[in-house]
Amino acid sequence: MLQFPLVRHCPYAPPEEYGQLREKDPVTRVRLPDGRESWVVTRHEHVRQVLNDPSFSADRTHADFPNLAPAGQPLPRDDSAPSMLTMDPPEHGPARRAVLGEFTVRQIAALRPRMQQIVDERLDAMLAGPRPADLVEELSLPVPSMVICEMLGVPYADHDFFQVNTAAMIKRETPQDERRAAFGRVRDYLDELIAGKEDAPPDDLLGRQIRKSRAGGDYDRRSLVSLGFLLLVAGHETTANMISLGTLALLGNPAQMDALRADPARTLGAVEEMLRYFTIVDTVVARLCVADTEVGGVTIRAGEGVLTLGQAANRDPEAFDEPDAFDIGRPARHHVAFGFGPHQCLGQNLARAELQIVFDTLLRRVPALRLATPVEELPFKSDAAIYGVYHMPVTW
Amino acid sequence: MRVIADPHRCVGAGQCVLTEPALFDQDPEDGTVIVLDENPSGDLVEAARDAALVCPSQALSVVDSW
Ligand code: HEM
Ligand code: SF4
Which residue stretches belong to region Disordered (chain A) (predicted)? Predict the structure, then answer.
């Protein structure tokens, strides 16, 4: 029985075993680090089926939910309020709809001028600094962090606190107890920040949520702290990794990079292809079966875990022609890099806008951009739950 | 051809608006789908089918008129 999670040996390719599973054994059992078993599904069709079927629960707090943390490292339990990420019907829908208005295509479009400013400021700073520069520190991490801080209504003066603590939360080098402390500090900070907004709720995301839930008669600060925390964490490292990896893919495909620079109308399509190609959130998208269900001729029973492997589904030749080719011109929007079903990424249109602005601006303003370290020497996050690169020295 | 949206299934991902803003919009409050043109024609027919394919919650259906 295969031991999960498997490792990506090449930044451009899924773990080698994925292709064979998808072809020969598309719904199969594997062993997790804690010794328990779980199902994995690898075909595009089956991944979409599982993620859109209420027979599969997203309750990550359930003891039987498949856990990929290294053995002996149970997930830290805390007393915080549940967020939409772990909710099922009937709670999930209302929790998600309460904040969806902030993330509609139209609402995100209104934020674009400010996002452009943030990207330009970061590039000004990078270009004025020494070469080589670490793209991750200079651009990938600060852009999504600043954007979400402004949306939530975190005062500018506190951005440093946020940068430092969110960086500590996601860095590999951070010891476990320091990581937990950083989580605690961010939660405490959010609690205080929200308390301070309660008297006269300002016109920012958190302030509007206070007003809205008060009007509905169900305001609860603990839930809002959990929402703020989820928005902060879910969109930070993910978007950052896509900025770095997307840049890497363009640098590795100069003809496509030139085509993109010549015609920014192609950027949105290119972003979809990057999302598909790297599928940085893979084994994390998991479910717990709560009612026996047939998937691909196999019965998955209540109480059993399932990993829906997006990175395998996004290379399924039934869904994408020549799936292993990176091609910014292909139709790729049916990828599952943002998940599928009711939990499909709430922040996807924010992420798309950030990525589009970053790549357009980077190509235009830094045409001579190149890696300062050979690709094979870059520290890829092969050991992390979310794929990416820790540092990426670039020059121009 | 008719485009039918089920706002109860909709999860507000906005994939339909990205596909064709002339056909779809989202409710500014709760983000759920609003169909702007229930009987599209021309290029919009293909766009409506594409939107139904990428919709993450199968909230959209395209039925041939009778
Ligand atoms: C390229 C960047 C991103 C990627 C690849 C990504 C990926 C994902 C995936 C795969 C899920 C589904 C998880 C599951 O079904 O178990 C998800 C959910 C979610 N994402 Fe993202 N995400 C990104 C950016 C963002 C941003 C910028 C935000 C918001 C600021 C965000 C907020 C959320 C939230 C709140 C959920 C939970 C939605 C729910 O449970 O209904 N994400 N994301
Ligand atoms: S794509 Fe589907 S789920 Fe998303 S907004 Fe449109 S109808 Fe709703």
Answer: 56-89
The conformational region for residue B14 under phi > 0 = left, psi -120 to 50 = alpha, else beta, is: left
What pLDDT was estimated at residue A78? 65
Which of A:21-80 have CB within 8 Å of B? 51-52
Q: Is the separation of the CB atoms in A52 and B57 below 8 Å?
A: yes
Q: Residues A195-214: pLDDT tens digits?
A: 999 999 999 999 999 999 99
Over range B35-63, report the average pLDDT: 93
What's the whole-number mean pLDDT along residues A209-230? 95
Minimal CA separation from B34 to chain A, in Å: 12
Residues of chain B with pLDDT > 70: what percent? Answer: 97
What does the mean pLDDT of chain A come to? 93
Let me know if residue A4 belongs to a domain.
no
Q: DSSP character for A31?
A: E
What is the count of structural domains for chain A? 1
Domains defined for chain B, CATH in brackets: 2-63 (3.30.70.20)
* ipTM passes above 0.95: no
**Span A209-233, mean pLDDT?**
94
Q: What is the CA radius of gyration of chain B?
A: 11
What are the DSSP calls for A206-258, one per residue? HHHHHHHHHHTT---HHHHHHHHHHHHHHHHHHHHHHHHHHHHHHHH-HHHHH
B56 and A342 in contact by Cβ < 8 A?
yes
Q: Would you say residue A319 lies in a domain? A: yes
CA–CA separation, A341 and A336 (whole Å): 10
Task: Check if B12 has its Cβ closer than 6 Å to any atom of ligand 2.
Answer: yes
Would you mind telling me the total number of residues written for chain A in this entry? 396
Q: Coil, strand or helix: which one is A191? A: helix
Upstream peptide bond of A90 is cis (omega within 30 degrees of 0) = yes
CATH assignment at residue A315: 1.10.630.10
Q: B17 CA distance to ligand 2 centroid (A)?
A: 8
Phi-psi category of residue A46: left, alpha or beta, with phi > 0 → left and psi -120 to 50 → alpha: alpha
Is the pLDDT confidence value at A250 over 60? yes
Q: Is the pTM of this model over 0.90?
A: yes
Looking at the domain assignment, is residue A11 inside a domain? no
pLDDT of residue A77: 55
CA of A61, closest CA in chain B: separation in Å? 22
